[in-house]
Amino acid sequence: MTKRVISGLILVAILFAVVVLNLFFPFGMNLVIGAITAMMIYELAEVFHLEKNYSFLFPSMAFAFVMPLISDIFWLGACCGAYLLLLAIIMLVTYEMQEKIDFMRWTAAIGMVFFITMAMGTLVGIRNNAYGHGAFYIFIVIMASWVADAGAYFAGSFFGKHKLCPKLSPKKTVEGVFGGFFLNILAMLVYGTCYNWIFFGGSLSISYLSLVLIGLICTVISIIGDLTFSMIKRYFQIKDYGHIIPGHGGFLDRFDSVIFVAPFLYFFLQVLPIIKFF
To answer: pLDDT for 148-168, tens place per residue?
Structure first.
């Protein structure tokens, strides 16, 4: 547990530094998101045993890195089309040359590349639509994912008795879910209040209803995201997606819930923004 806590604190410190960097060099956040997404695609390729298939790996990692750097919808569409066309050509050529290709594995991997890349790309959209509060909103997204996980982990460790999904994640408990609810809602309210009073002297109009709903709903979404990627790990019979983060595994292990939470908050914040403007 100690290694997991220390690694978690280091991750939060790095995240905080990146969010602060956004105030002075906004494009730096795009680069970081692109780099993390590309690393997740590499971990995904390892799971699908495609890490040595460079005709899949290099285009997929390049696609994952470039997408968060593009803001124009025209070039986003062009990049998606180019990636699909290139992979289709590679599969056709491979089939013609070898007369053997695992279509199920390739198509599943390509679908996951799109899913992960598009989901992570919504972080950029959230930042760009935040009207000067991009760092605040990005931190909300990450907190809504990680705090829920931390609350569920500690509540489950101390009070957990009833298993939630024993086949997918034996350590997850019903008591842990309630711990995730409590800590996530509390963290949202405290963070929103501190942001308002420390940086703006209480002059912002904060929607505490939005903060409560984010804490509540994102706890559920975070657990679903974690269980979904756990299901993939069980299917491929692996413990972690990687080993780059001590106590946490790989980037996919750490950002699995973010992949699910970010797209939801992208739309939620358009309807019920935390900071209200009149």
So the answer is: 888 888 887 777 677 877 777
Q: How far apart are the first and last CA of the chain?
A: 46
- Does residue 167 come out as left (phi exceeding 0), alpha (psi in the -120 to 50 range) or beta? alpha
Residue 166: phi, psi to the nearest 5?
A: -60, -30
pLDDT in tens, 184-243: 999 999 999 999 999 889 899 999 999 999 999 999 999 999 889 988 888 888 888 877
Exposure pattern of 203-228 as b/e (b: 16+ CB <10 Å)?
A: ebebbeebbbebbbbbbbbbbebbbe
DSSP 192-214: HHHHHHHHHTT-SEE-HHHHHHH
The reported pTM is 0.88
According to DSSP, the residues that pair with 92 across neighbouring strands are none
Q: Which residues contact 244 (CB under 8 A, 6 or more apart)?
A: 39, 250, 251
Q: What is the SS3 string spanning 235-254?
A: HHCCCCCCCCECCCECHHHH
Question: What pLDDT, on the 0 to 100 scale, is given for residue 193?
Answer: 95
Q: Which residues contact 248 (CB under 8 A, 6 or more apart)?
A: 4, 7, 8, 11, 240, 254
Place of tokens 């009207």: 131
Phi-psi domain of 237 (left: phi exceeds 0; alpha: psi -120 through 50; beta: other): left
Nearest residue to 216 (alpha-carbon basis) of 119, 267, 147, 157: 147
Return the amino acid letter for 239.
K
- Smallest CA-to-CA distance from 47 within 92, 99, 90, 108 is with 108
